[in-house]
Amino acid sequence: MAIQAQTRPVNIKPVPVDALNCKLSYEPNAKETVSISNAVTTKAVATPTVPVTAPITTNIKYAPAVKPIAGNYNLYSIGIEWTNNKGPGLSKVTNLARAVANNYKRLSSGQLQFKPIPRSIKVNYAHQGKNLKKAETQVIKIATGGKVNPNDRFMIVNSGVQGFSHGSGNTAHLYGTLYRDGYHEIGHCRPFVLGHSGKYDSTGKLHAYDDGTSFMGRFSSTELTASQLYFLGWLPENKVAQYDLNTPAATFNVENLNTDFKGTGVKAVYIPRPDQRPIFLSMPKVNGKFMFALHLSTGGGSQRVTVFGNKAEYSNLAFEKVADGTGFSTVKISPVTIPAKSKK
């Protein structure tokens, strides 16, 4: 029976408003350094695995299908030429527009298309923060001929007149031309409305921008987390398995997340939890190597709990890699048995 598509996944709450109040610092080439031993509420244990070639997962229950974010949009990439600052120049805003368009096309498997429209536009204002809103209004009017269409999106580069980048609605307000900043701030805009990608440290404190597996954090990346791809409807229906709590152990072939969909495994395992954020298990690239990761999801935002190589425990669930294949690993998910208290 076909699964009816829905506009957003079940049990995933909307992004909190403050999560979209973005102040992304200008950090060229920022990269995350991950210590596997600092996993939160997990037990990371190195155990031998058995190499295999092509195990086939059977009797999979798939997660509810999500209607994909799709369509064609104009992407205006505008460099402001101030009276006392030449701005980034046409070449840089052109490259930025192409990079953002190509990356979103790749992530959406062509379902979302941006048409790059690069411009370098002179304004009648000096390079000062008090003039930014007026300058942005002027360049948008010039670029569009005074008519903004519903499918128009804007990246406006102000050359550091603000100390950070931010985005919402139909506009990304950019400090400079870092590709990560373009991916990130357009991700905050409609129709995506993505939240930030954070991670929990060893004390349980959330660092809202510190997940390096997604460009919705602060590190250099071209990718999104499994939960964000699912939220956007960009994972095929047969690529997200579902594991339900209080059920027997189940085994899944989990493919490398940041590769194509040609394999026979799944890209993620979705674990809904009553009145709690759902868990997503996936295998993104971390520090240049594909590792298992557990993320919690709040709408288009995600919070990474841990990364691990072989074993982890979280939320009364045990996760264990049982085999390695080409482009995938086989993982078993099972409930953790809590010993009953002895009677005195």
Overview of this protein structure:
There is one protein chain. The chain has 2 domains: 180 residues, no CATH class; 121 residues. The chain contains 4 helices and 20 strands. Helix 1 crosses helix 3. The termini are far apart. Strand 6 and strand 7 form a beta hairpin. Helices cover 14% and strands 31% of the residues. The N terminus is likely disordered. The protein is of the alpha/beta class. The strands form 4 sheets. A 7-stranded mixed β-sheet has the order 9-8-17-16-13-12-10. Strands 1-6-7-5-3-4 form a 6-stranded mixed β-sheet. Strands 2, 11, 18, 19 and 20 form a 5-stranded mixed β-sheet that branches.
Report the uncertain regions: 1-20, 36-57
Distance between the termini: 53 Å
Total number of strands: 20
Q: Portion of residues in helices?
A: 10-25%
Tell me the strand percentage band.
Answer: 25-35%
Strand order of the largest sheet: 9-8-17-16-13-12-10
Major beta sheet, specifics? Answer: 7 strands, mixed
Structural class: alpha/beta
What's the domain count?
2
Q: C-alpha Rg, in Å?
A: 22 Å
Helical run tally: 4
Order of helices and strands: EEEHEHEEEHEEHEEEEEEEEEEE
What sort of overall outline do the alpha carbons produce when their principal axes are compared? Answer: elongated
Mean pLDDT: 88
